[in-house]
Write a structure and sequence with these properties.
- The complex is a heterodimer of chains A (197) and B (313).
- Chain A is α/β, with parallel strands linked by helices and 197 residues long.
- Helix content of chain A is 32%, strand content 24%.
- Chain A has one domain: 3-Layer(aba) Sandwich (Rossmann fold).
- Chain A has 6 helices and 8 strands; from the N terminus they run ααβαβαββαβββαβ.
- In chain A, helix 5 links the parallel strand 4 and strand 5.
- In chain A, helix 3 packs across helix 4.
- The longest helix of chain A has 18 residues.
- With 313 residues, chain B is an alpha/beta fold.
- Chain B has 2 domains: 138 residues, Rossmann fold; 152 residues, Rossmann fold (3-Layer(aba) Sandwich), CATH 3.40.50.
- Helices cover 38% and strands 14% of the residues of chain B.
- Chain B is built from 11 helices and 9 strands.
- In chain B, the strands form 2 sheets. A 5-stranded parallel β-sheet of chain B has the order 7-6-5-8-9. A 4-stranded parallel β-sheet of chain B has the order 2-1-3-4, with helices on both faces.
- Classes of the chains: A alpha/beta (197), B alpha/beta (313).
- At the A-B interface, loops of A face helix 1 and helix 11 of B.
């Protein structure tokens, strides 16, 4: 229901304070995200000396969108198609029984043999490292890759597990109370990275 | 791009389709779809039920259902334990309640029960804290069979709503028929039941189904037919003149299908099949028969059921 249906037409002072509290700082805009992904894609190709044997797998939901873009970039750079997959880590979560709402398990889509492949695992935000731990466990259940490298758009620190990324879009020091949100056209309608206080 | 949505599942037990709402049935079907892809992995095993113990309490013979539940539990990393009538203390006169309490004292999380008495799972759910899943009770319900049947129809035909589904055979004694009718009606299908008068419940129309005693009527325009097993063990109740007569009037053969049914009608059967009685050899093995798909889907649907129930505190 629109705002003016539920309350007064004028915004109260309390509302203004709340809005200020929810102030968002924009870290990256659409072009910024594009450029960052371009750089990461070049780094991937450089580090792996081409695209041979490479495969890109994104962690659902936003990591999968980013993985798609990275795979397209690599194809443009190397003129070579790289296999693309998406992984849903819900079943591997260590807090599965503690989530208040019931999770809907989406299908993991890896339609190629990962054994012997150099896997680029992609996620939007790297935080505690627990999501990546789940993804690593799940990937190993699909086969034995030659190696797994981690690419993230944002690294915000506060790791709880010994996990480090191989490719980072932007390091953003954050407080634990803050929220980093990556919004992408495919999932959220607009394309930006914001910090919510 | 799909978005991550949370679904509402609050049931601690699965006792029958009767207790489920259409949205809950859809939730199970949707989860089952994700689990089906797990079954196709190199290592078809995922960890969400690690540390949970599931008991299979089967007080009636069963191969398919028990094996399917056990496999589903193992694919989710749960530990399973089997109690079958033939080898347990039932033969020594222990009551169901005592058996269940003893099983529960071993700290189990879920009990999957099949029992010859209608209502046994309900009874059990009132005397134990563990979750209870009905794997068939008397002539009452067999919810997971109905769920895997509707899953299979949806997988093959893309929807359930407004489809015409006919259930043929011994409706009166069939828990499969009962659960199927409930599930199909809840999801908006048109259901016709067909069989000899002695095997059709008297108040069948109350369930909102069409009743016919003519196989031609049941086959006409049907999108899917579910052929039930003639329960030979009920032969001494004198409800049928003979199996041969049943086969000639209600048996599904290629000729009968060619004469009355749509060419691409889906052929289903919950098994075990009596070849040459309710279904002919060539129909059971025909290209429109999805009998083995039903078995595969059974594991996925049971994984979804166990998973959703295990998430309820």
């Amino acid at each position: 229901m629109p705002e003016w249906h539920t309350g007064s037409f004028f915004i109260s002072q309390g509302k203004v304070n709340e809005m200020e509290k929810n102030a968002r700082a924009r870290i990256l805009d659409k072009e910024g995200i594009e450029r960052t992904l371009q750089r990461i894609s070049h780094e991937i190709v450089e580090k792996n000396q081409g695209a041979t044997n490479l495969a890109v797998i994104g962690i659902k939901t936003r990591g999968a969108v980013l993985a798609e873009k990275i795979a397209a970039n690599i194809k443009a750079i190397e003129k070579k198609e790289v296999p693309l997959g998406a992984i849903d880590i819900t079943l591997y979560r260590d807090d599965l029984t503690e989530i208040a709402k019931q999770p809907l398990v989406h299908a993991t889509e890896i339609n190629f043999d990962i054994t012997g492949k150099r896997i680029i695992l992609v996620d939007d935000v790297l935080y505690t490292g627990r999501t990546v731990r789940c993804a690593l466990d799940e990937l190993i259940d699909f086969g034995r890759p030659a190696c797994i490298q981690l690419a993230v758009l944002i690294d915000r620190g506060h790791r709880e597990l010994p996990i480090r990324p191989d490719y980072v879009g932007k390091n953003i020091p954050t407080a634990k109370e803050e929220q980093v949100e990556v919004r992408l056209e495919g999932t959220d309608g607009e394309e930006e990275v914001v910090i919510l206080q | 791009m799909e978005t991550r949505t949370a679904i509402k599942w609050t049931k601690k037990n699965l006792l029958g389709i009767e207790d489920l709402e259409a949205a809950e049935i859809s939730a199970i079907l949707e989860q089952a779809h994700s689990f089906k892809s797990v079954l196709e992995r190199t290592i078809p095993k995922v960890p969400p039920l690690r540390g949970k113990t599931i008991v299979m309490l089967f007080c009636e013979p069963s191969t398919r259902t028990r094996a399917s539940f056990e496999l589903a539990a193992k694919r989710l990393s749960a530990d399973t334990m089997n109690f079958a009538t033939s080898t347990s203390s039932f033969l020594k006169g222990e009551t169901l309640k005592d058996t269940a309490r003893n099983i529960e004292a071993m700290k189990v999380d879920m009990i999957v029960i099949r029992h010859g008495c209608s209502g046994a799972p309900h009874f059990l759910s009132n005397c134990v804290n563990a979750s209870v899943i009905n794997a068939g009770d008397g002539m009452h319900e067999h919810p997971t069979q109905a769920l895997l049947d509707v899953y299979t129809i949806k997988e093959k035909l893309g929807r359930i709503k407004e489809l015409k589904v006919s259930i043929i055979g011994d409706i009166a004694h069939s828990r499969v028929a009962r659960s199927n009718i409930l599930a199909l009606k809840k999801l908006g299908a048109e259901v016709t039941i067909c069989g000899p008068k002695t095997l059709i419940p008297k108040d069948a129309e109350k369930m909102g189904v069409k009743v016919t005693y003519e196989i031609s009527e049941a086959l006409k325009d049907a999108d899917a037919i579910n052929i039930l097993r003639i329960q030979r063990e009920r032969q001494n109740e004198a409800l049928l003149p003979s199996l041969r007569e049943y086969a000639s009037r209600f048996g599904i053969t290629t000729e009968i299908l060619r004469k009355y049914a749509r060419k691409e009608v889906l052929i289903m059967h919950p098994g075990p099949i009596n070849r040459g009685i309710e279904i002919s050899q060539d129909v059971a093995d025909s290209e429109f028969s999805v009998i083995l798909d039903q078995v595969t889907n059974g594991v996925a649907v049971r994984m979804a059921t166990l998973f959703l129930i295990s998430m309820v505190k």
